[in-house]
Amino acid sequence: MSKQFSIIIVGGGIAGLATAIALRAPNRKITILEQSSLNREIGATISLQPNASKIVEQQWDLSKTLKDKGSMVDEGFQVYNLDGELQMRVPLSTTEKYGAERMLYYRIDLHDALKKRATSKEWDGEPAEIRVSSRVTGCDCDEGVVYTQTGERFQADLVVGADGIKSVVRDAVLDTKVPALRTGHSAYRMILSIDRLLTDCKAFCEVVDPRAPYTTMVMARNRRMIMGPARNGSVYSIVAMVPDEDLGEDPNTTSWTTHGDIPKMKETFSDFPEWARGPLSCVNDGEVGLWQLRDIDPLPTWTKGRVVLVGDAAHAMLPTQGQGASQAIEDAEAVGAFYADINIDEGGLEQVKAVNEKIFACRYKRATTIQQYSRQAAKPATEEGSVKVKMSPSEFMDYNCNYGGAVEWLRRQKEEDAKEAGGDKLAEDISKMRIVDREVSAQEVVA
Ligand SMILES: Cc1cc2nc3c(=O)[nH]c(=O)nc-3n(C[C@H](O)[C@H](O)[C@H](O)COP(=O)(O)OP(=O)(O)OC[C@H]3O[C@@H](n4cnc5c(N)ncnc54)[C@H](O)[C@@H]3O)c2cc1C
Ligand SMILES: *[C@@H]1O[C@H](CO)[C@@H](O)[C@H](O)[C@H]1NC(C)=O
Ligand SMILES: *[C@@H]1O[C@H](CO)[C@@H](O)[C@H](O)[C@H]1NC(C)=O
Ligand SMILES: *[C@@H]1O[C@H](CO)[C@@H](O)[C@H](O)[C@H]1NC(C)=O
Question: Where is the FAD-binding domain positioned along the sequence (predicted)?
């Protein structure tokens, strides 16, 4: 029998749990180190785009579990102006075109389902072990060693950095501190029961039916509300985006868990008409989160030695395209695919390094394009972005949704690279950011 393959995953968020699922196999020991106690209820919804929902629901067999928890198909997208006039409604059933739906989950439900799938004996492969209250403070990439705040030391053949936008592991990979960048926008977020909306916010419900499985946006010049139902239509999630300069609160102190000040929020939206303000006035104290939107610039690499980064640690992006969790899931699938047939050698550093490089090369262009597009979509239409992705929204939707997993993606990339060796419409911008260029020879493509 070959040597046991030991893996440490730093971070038990969506990326970390998904990577554990994708890596689970016999003779593998997976340990997830999570700083929190993992029992905080976060009132928020999260969406998965078709390709990621397909991985989670079909490949990882979580469709029934999530359905029982009240998962919903996001059937389309609609935009209202402040006068309550419908500007646009796009039904977006994606099954026919992309083979799966865009799904809406209560974030905690998705997290719980992934946690169970990673750690339960019900599925094949050694279950992963989660150690909570284990905050990683340092990492030696070549040795595969991580240290925790409590002075513990863990070592493994492979270390996955899934520790989110403020990743400590990323700092070790790049040997420098990578700041999360302020994007100039913050968002209030809240979850209301639909029953409460129907009784207390009648004017709002006359315009927008909160039970309809639609993502709804109310657009004002520099502010917008993005809303949608969750848990079988029993709750409604509202994210109200505000430029930092119009925010009555200190934008420097906001994290995922900062509470928003309701009077200040109402003040910020006081020029909204009554119907649109409705939901903001029927929320109670302690129910509003304030979240500063941050992302990071594309990184020169996601890997060093035994370490590879996934999820927000690698490519934190703005939520404008609802792609943060989807890209984390796609990373996880890629890590699983590239390590699928690997039996680890004694030592094994060169072996792990080579696989990690392949994961980076496979995932970088797609995740970076979506990250850039998400940043671009947050800007008012008139403002010039520093990097432009030259795709229309519908081209982008196709780009988003035509992802067949890591192996299929590599094959397609090779074809495209070869075809467009002269000047890919996208590559123009992306190549400026791409440090590691994959040279693809004609023989390779033919083979
Ligand atoms: C509380 C919370 C609320 C969120 N709400 C939304 C939302 O409403 N809408 C949305 O689109 N996205 C939201 N996100 C982000 C979204 O979940 C991510 O973009 C996406 O799921 C990718 O996740 P990730 O696992 O890479 O990062 P995260 O979801 O940030 O997970 C990182 C995990 O690593 C842990 N961690 C961090 N540092 C360390 C360390 N040094 N040692 C050990 N563990 C560490 C964190 O506690 C966390 O569990 C939220 C994230 C969090 C953590
Ligand atoms: C959601 O609806 C499905 C049926 O469509 C049901 O099986 C499930 O129990 C419901 N879950 C919740 C939490 O309401
Ligand atoms: C927030 O941080 C920025 C940049 O560091 C600083 O210029 C600004 O004064 C800070 N704002 C507040 C309210 O502290
Ligand atoms: C994503 O969608 C495309 C187009 O339908 C499909 O070819 C591909 O297999 C899907 N990806 C996954 C991971 O199933």
Answer: 6-336
Q: Cα(445)–Cα(271) distance, rounded to whole angstroms?
A: 58
Alpha helix ranges (H) inside 55-167: 63-68, 95-98, 107-119
Ligand 3 centre from 178 Cα, in Å?
19
CA 36 – CA 336 distance, rounded (Å): 25
Q: How far is the CA of 259 from the centre of ligand 3 (A)?
A: 19
**What pTM was computed for the model?**
0.85
pLDDT digits (tens, 9 = 90+) for 149-202: 999 999 999 999 999 999 999 999 999 999 888 888 888 989 999 999 999 999
The ligand with the least distance to the CA atom of 96 is 4
Ligand 1 cavity residues, CB under 6 Å = 10-16, 33-36, 42, 44, 46, 107, 135-136, 162-164, 168, 189, 256, 311-313, 319, 324-325, 328
| Whether residue 307 sits in one domain with residue 285 | no
Q: How many domains does the chain have?
A: 3
Q: pLDDT tens digits for 199-228?
A: 999 999 999 999 889 889 888 877 888 899
To test ligand 3's pocket by mutation, which of 249, 252, 253 has the most ligand atoms within 8 angstroms of CB?
252
Same domain, 258 and 303: no
The whole-angstrom separation of Cα 183 and Cα 294 is 5
| The last residue of a domain, from among 260, 278, 295 | 295
Map residue 237 onto helix, strand or coil.
strand
> Nearest ligand to the C-alpha of residue 109?
2
